[in-house]
Amino acid sequence: MHTSLRRSTSGPPALAAVLLVLVVLAGAAVPGSAASAVPAPAAQAAGPWWRHAVIYEIYPRSFQDSNGDGTGDLIGITQRLDYLERLAVDAIWIAPIYPSAQVDFGYDITDYQAVDPMFGTLAEFDRLLGEARRRNIRIILDMVLNHTSDQHPWFIDAARSRDSRYHDFYVWSAGKLDAAGHRQPPNNWVSLFGGSAWEFVPAVGQFYYHRFYRQQPDLNWRNPEVERAMFAAMRFWLDRGVAGFRLDAVTELFEDAKLRDAPALGGTNAQGDPNLSDIYTKNLPEVHDVMRRLRAMVDTYPGERVLIGETYLAKTADLDAWYGGPKHNELHLPMDTLVGFGNRLDANTFRRRLLESQTELHDSQPLLVFDNHDNVRSWDRFGDGVHDAQIARIVAALLLTTRATALMYQGQEIGQRTQTPTRVEDVRDPLGVRGWPRDKGRDGERTPMQWDSSNAQAGFSTNPHTWLPVTANYRNVNVHSEAADPGSLLNWYRRLIALRRSNRALREGRMVMLDTANPSVLSYARVSVDDETVIVSLNMSAQPQTPSLDLVQAGLHGSHLQTLLSSPDPLSRGGAKEPVSLPPYAAWVAELR
Ligand code: NOJ
Fold first, then answer.
1. pTM
2. Of ligand 1's atoms, which has the minimum distance to the CA of residue 442?
3. Cβ of residue 227 lying under 6 Å from some atom of ligand 1
4. C-alpha 249 to ligand 1 mean position (Å)
5. Does the beta carbon of 409 lie inside 6 Å of ligand 1?
């Protein structure tokens, strides 16, 4: 536990001790040109690379199409590596590229040791790996351990006969007979994607369990053969040189062995199913044994491979077990989805959540994420319709200046919007087809990357029939035009990432909350082991605010604050003795001297 954090939050500070720091906004803010500075090599940083990394998620269908079929591919990613190098990300996580039945767009795998022809070939993957390495960019693959496709040879065989050697690779039940003598599923569990979680297979006279679509049968992790097969698949990629995995739905690997009914919570969800407790279908204790063995396996590889978890959990404290608690022997970076996937830009909520991530995880490294291919984009969740562009800069600052590894999603850095389909016949995501109109699915956050305005496909493809439509705002919101505009969101991201790399306090310093009773402005300090200190203040309100930075109370040294980055830029240049005044939704990053 950080004592300084406790000090800055413990009780109302005595009046005399509240020192409103007088800020001298000396010198100009870092000019746009600073963004073009070659980023400091990550090798200078202390600790493993992933501890201070910026990881960039690529949804490969929508990143770059190289062959004009309207869908992104591996050669397309390779073609865009220079862009990622310039953005200065440390690693890319690519959503599944394996052969798949493509019902869930890659998350229903039919072969764990190959590349889907729609994305390219294994040789093209190796070339991508090599080109990325030349640019100091690591590649993290998605690994779907919870389920396969129902078209995977294992499942096809398992569903053929109870005598199949693969039958026990999946979770089966004979179900139960109702009063009329009809066979019913064994319990009330529902799929997260709608309907019963059980599907009957007449050939074997049993139901199989599927947490997601019925085309995604769950693997039976109580069968040691499953673990062996999946670890072998991971070794295949580790041997090729991938930097690690993002583990899909990893909290769901085990289910209650007794298949007990889930307690009802009342009401229905967006798919029209009853809301049920997930005590029997999520986060079961056995999963941690698998995680420890997986970590041990991955740690036998050189080069600091990393395990990232897709861990949607109810409380920050629940994340601790996923790191292995004080032993730190499970995942390196289970995702904290609580900070970034809210709907309200609220200083108190962010302060509380961030404080929890600093104090409840046995000093493990938090992994923050605000955007991905499953959630409405942060622009649309946090924006108020008036200050959206400014709010997007605050989100970027939260992601890149708090003490956390940063995970971002393609298009976030240029302010891509969520484009939800308006007609059910246009929906591609089965979730949206089934859930329409209450749940319109995830197409909106998966639209193609907006590179330029050279054609109606925003430079993503030459094919007018892209797999999802390009968002109409591509003429203004695109990489090419934002790269040329020093005040763009893209350049704000570039400057933040460059600063995070070069500034030790931001890269690896501890975090101290400041001005903790302020309901409108979130302020914190990052302090390196050498006491280099950076102060961040984010005005999360539509009114101008003057934070009360109780630096002495927080045990911080220095009285002179030099702006490093601000948005709007420049902030008010008050007289030498004026505290900093933050316009609505302003973000301010300053060095304390
Ligand atoms: C989480 C993935 O991110 C999502 O896209 C997918 O549908 C489910 N897991 C099931 O694999």
1. 0.93
2. 5
3. no
4. 7
5. no
- Decide: 318 in ligand 1 pocket, CB within 6 A: no
Counting ligand 1 atoms within 8 A of each CB, the residue from 212, 213, 252, 341 with the most, and so the one to mutate, is: 212
Burial environment of residue 479 by CB neighbours within 10 A (0 to 12, 13 to 18, 19 or more): buried
The letter for the amino acid at 155 is: F
Active site residues: 248, 310
Question: Hunting for tokens 């070339």 — which residue is that?
Answer: 127
Phi, psi of 41 (to 5 degrees): -60, 135
Distance in Å, CA 307 to ligand 1 centroid: 17
Residues in contact with 532: Cβ distance below 8 Å, sequence separation at least 6, in sequence order: 503, 504, 505, 509, 591
Which residue's entry shows tokens 């798949």?
A: 100
Cβ neighbours of 81 (radius 10 Å): 16
Domains of the chain (ranges; CATH) run 146-302 (3.90.400.10), 509-592 (2.60.40.1180)
Going residue by residue through the chain, which has 593 residues, state the pLDDT in tens, using 9 for 90 and above. 222 222 222 233 332 233 344 343 333 333 333 333 333 444 467 899 999 999 999 999 999 999 999 999 999 999 999 999 999 999 999 999 999 999 999 999 999 999 999 999 999 999 999 999 999 999 999 999 999 999 999 999 999 999 999 999 999 999 999 999 999 999 999 999 999 999 999 999 999 999 999 999 999 999 999 999 999 999 999 999 999 999 999 999 999 999 999 999 999 999 999 999 999 999 999 999 999 999 999 999 999 999 999 999 999 999 999 999 999 999 999 999 999 999 999 999 999 999 999 999 999 999 999 999 999 999 999 999 999 999 999 999 999 999 999 999 999 999 999 999 999 999 999 999 999 999 999 999 999 999 999 999 999 999 999 999 999 999 999 999 999 999 999 999 999 999 999 999 999 999 999 999 999 999 999 999 999 999 999 999 999 999 999 898 899 988 889 999 999 987 754 433 346 899 999 999 999 99
For ligand 1, atom 2, name the residue with the nearest CA: 248
In this structure, the residue with its CA closest to atom 6 of ligand 1 is 107
Distance from the CA of 533 to the center of ligand 1, in angstroms? 39
| Distance (Å) from CA 96 to ligand 1 centroid | 10
Tell me the CA–centroid distance for residue 191 and ligand 1, in Å. 13
Q: Which atom of ligand 1 is nearest to the CA of 193?
A: 7
- Please give the Cα distance from 30 to 498 (Å, whole number): 11
d(Cα 151, Cα 561) in Å, to the nearest integer? 61
Place of tokens 């960039």: 56
Residue whose token pair is 């096809």: 156
Ligand 1 atom closest to Cα of 310? 1
